[in-house]
Specification:
Largest sheet: 5 strands, antiparallel
Distance between the termini: 48 Å
Radius of gyration: 24 Å
Strand content: 5-15%
Structural class: alpha+beta
Number of helices: 11
Shape: globular
Strand order of the largest sheet: 1-2-3-5-4
Length: 401
Amino acid sequence: MVLDTLKDVQSDNTTPKFSEGLLLFHEHRVRAAQLLPVEYFWRDNAAWFEAQGYKLRPRYQPGWEPDVPMVEVYVEDENFTPMARASIVDAIRVKDGKRVLLKSVDRTELPHEVEISQLLGAGPLASDPRNHCVPLEDVLSLPDEPDVKIIVFPFLQQLTAIPFDTFGEIVDFLQQVFTGLQFMHHHHVAHRDIGQPNIMMDGDELFPDGWHQLFGYMLPGGQRQTTVITRTQRPPKYYLIDFGLSRRYDPSDPNPLEEPIYGGDRTVPEFDTDKEAFNPFQTDIYYLGNMIRKYIIEGKASEFTGYFGTGFLRSLVKDMTRDDPEKRPTIDEVVTRFEKICSKLSPWKLRSRPIPRKGNIFKEIRNHKEHWKRMNEYIAQGIPPIPSRRLQSISEVVPQP
């Protein structure tokens, strides 16, 4: 942004005085800190939300103006932290101080999201241990906008906030996600937009001092990096989120068909054919398999890491991402095959550190001894190699570095 301002100044073929340039720099930062038009909805309804028991942070309070110092600006401060998505904002639940997320849902555009969120995130299904759909805390109705609902969720952490420390952590993550999708399919709901951004985790145990709403590695106020505990020490629960494209189908129909609708992943092979309708449960399998391929195995895109040593997943992922949806396994078959794969992984493999494909090899060598020292401490403490499972035996033999 600063470079753009200086470029604009220089394009006038004039040489501004230093004081004029500093003033332009300051004005540019002030403009950058202003509320975006898509944020006006939250500001305009902040008082109403507080009356319902949810207080938005200072940026969205009526009358807020950015306070931009002349010399120093921290990107993490309140001046520069709009929400990542226009429809979602963080808030504090007044009665207990708990951080939550508020999501605005226009039912004329997303007619099924509230219904499916209530089905899976509240009521009898919410307490099922197989359920990994994000819990629904509340549903609010705006007084003058009957088509707009505000759904309230826990304040969750991004899946990518910290890297995986062991293969056991990867196995734990995949097992939970597979179980969660199986739970949805067993209740005849297709997600239709599974991807890394739509899988989050409960960060309360991993980040005991809290985390920033946009910059997860920072403290809530953005002053410094927050304390992080490994997933092995404090196993997180993973959640499927965002049911805007999800649909529930007739249990008596074994092969429901839907017109294609693109979510975050636009590589679905069947959508590029001449067919006009597809089984969304088969497409879910592709979405999940492709996410594992990009995020866990290969790390193709810039935002994905990918890890060496994940070859044990390739055969399953290859079948999940077959071009012909009829040849993909069902979610029950995926779960069964994954359990067999995991049963063949040794404790040593599960406790080993997955090396990021895009990491610094010299740094990874330096971390090797620290990793195995930590693993031996975990064994002595009785911490299992797959975090959310109970330790069956602590008589593992771990090779020394």
